[in-house]
Write a structure and sequence with these properties.
It is a single chain. The chain is an all-alpha fold. It has a domain of 42 residues. 79% of the residues lie in helices and 0% in strands. The protein has five helices and no strands. Helix 2 runs parallel beside helix 4 and helix 3 runs antiparallel to helix 4. The longest helix has 31 residues. The chain starts with a helix and ends with a helix. The relative contact order is 0.10.
């Protein structure tokens, strides 16, 4: 009887590579998007979901953009715009 590696396992090394790529690319993007969303909601941003989706789909460019303008999103930014 041939052993299991001789027969071939569906998705052997390819599945390992796919799971590694998932862990390296997708999981950090989800974590950063969650951080952006939570930070935007703490700052009472009306666009928290948009920032989170942008961070998820736009990648590093949106992450840097958000962290550059996030002080304008929070309560101090809303007081400047005339909102209580």
């Amino acid at each position: 009887m041939p052993s299991l590696p001789q027969i071939g396992v569906a998705g052997g090394p390819e599945l390992l590579v796919a799971l590694l790529l998932l862990g390296i690319l997708v999981v950090p993007a989800l974590l950063v998007s969650l951080i952006v969303y939570l930070d935007a909601t703490d700052r009472d941003s009306r666009h928290a979901i948009a920032w989170a989706l942008g961070a998820l789909l736009g990648g590093v460019v949106v992450w840097v953009l958000y962290f550059a303008v996030r002080d304008e999103v929070g309560p101090s930014g809303s007081a400047v715009n005339g909102r209580p």
